[in-house]
Structure formats: structure tokens, C-alpha cells
Specification:
Length: 171
């Protein structure tokens, strides 16, 4: 199904991440970059994750997942190597009204991690709208220089800096 693109203010909310492997490290890195506090649930972590533990607001719970780990969180990420655990996290999160990303089953996700391009004045998010399209992360990797050029000049730059669009000036 088509997905609505939305940007969430992550300054303040807690994101629960179940897993300590490389894929989860990328998700944690992205969330930290937007100011999130992370509740990491994993008995062990990969070296990529260890580097992130001291970088930001990461609370590492060295345990297996339990539904109580969702208490007080805004987003949940299920990225373990266990299908049953990921499914349970997805179900528990949905039961609590928490947006959840289930790494191994896109059909169980309530949100996806888009490919991001961050320029000085603009953040662009890419996600496929149809299975026939190339993966969004591949598309984003092709366009960062061009996107930054567009973001930092002309109408896009004025909009991003709060200058407004010409059509917004009604008399």
C-alpha cells in the first residue's frame, strides 16, 4: 500500500530498538542524529553498536525482549535475528498504539526508515511507492550532491529557510 511520508520530532521521545547487530546500529545512528533517546534491548551488541553507545542518549538493557521494554516509548524497532521475537514486538507495539518497524517483514511495519539526504537547509526522505522501483536507499545514494545544490538555492532554499513560496503571498 501507499505510505504517507511524515517527519517526526525525535527530540525527547524514546525509541526502543531490539537488537544489537549492524542493521540496528544504522537505525540507532539515524535516530540519534535526530535527537532521539534510545532504549536498546539486546544481550550483546556488534562492534558498530558499541561505538554508538557512548555517542548519545542510549540506555542499554542487556536482556532479551520483554513487552515491558515498550513502556513509555514512541517508536519501536524490531531488528533481531529471531523471526518470532520480531513478530511479537510488532504485535505488542501495535496493541499499545506504538509505531513499529519490523526489519525482516515490511508487511508488519507501521513505518519504514526512508533513505535520507540531509543538506544544510533541507532533509529529503526517499521510500519506494511500488515494488518495481529500485530500492529507495540506492536512489538516495545517487542524488545527494544534486539534492544539496537544489536545497541551497532558488525557491527550494527560500522555502526551507522560511521565505515562503511566491503563491503564498495573497493580497
Amino acid at each position: 500500500p501507499a505510505r504517507f511520508r511524515v517527519f517526526i520530532n525525535l527530540h525527547g521521545p524514546t525509541v526502543m530498538v531490539a537488537a544489537g547487530a549492524r542493521v540496528a546500529a544504522g537505525r540507532v545512528d539515524t535516530c540519534l542524529g535526530f535527537g532521539a533517546a534510545i532504549r536498546l534491548v539486546s544481550p550483546e551488541v556488534a562492534p558498530e553498536m558499541e561505538k554508538l553507545l557512548s555517542r548519545g542518549s542510549v540506555e542499554w538493557l542487556r536482556s532479551e525482549y520483554d513487552a515491558e521494554h515498550l513502556d513509555g516509548v514512541t517508536l519501536a524497532i524490531a531488528a533481531t535475528d529471531n523471526r518470532d521475537v520480531n513478530r511479537r514486538i510488532g504485535l505488542d507495539a501495535r496493541d499499545r498504539g506504538i509505531l513499529v518497524s519490523v526489519a525482516d517483514r515490511p508487511d508488519e511495519c507501521r513505518f519504514y526508515f526512508p533513505a535520507l539526504i540531509k543538506a544544510a537547509v533541507l532533509t529529503a526522505a526517499f521510500a519506494p511507492t511500488h515494488r518495481a522501483l529500485p530500492p529507495a536507499h540506492g536512489v538516495a545514494a545517487q542524488y545527494p550532491r544534486r539534492a544539496e545544490q537544489l536545497a541551497n538555492r532558488g525557491a527550494v532554499g527560500r522555502l526551507a529557510r522560511g521565505g515562503g513560496a511566491p503563491c503564498s503571498r495573497r493580497r
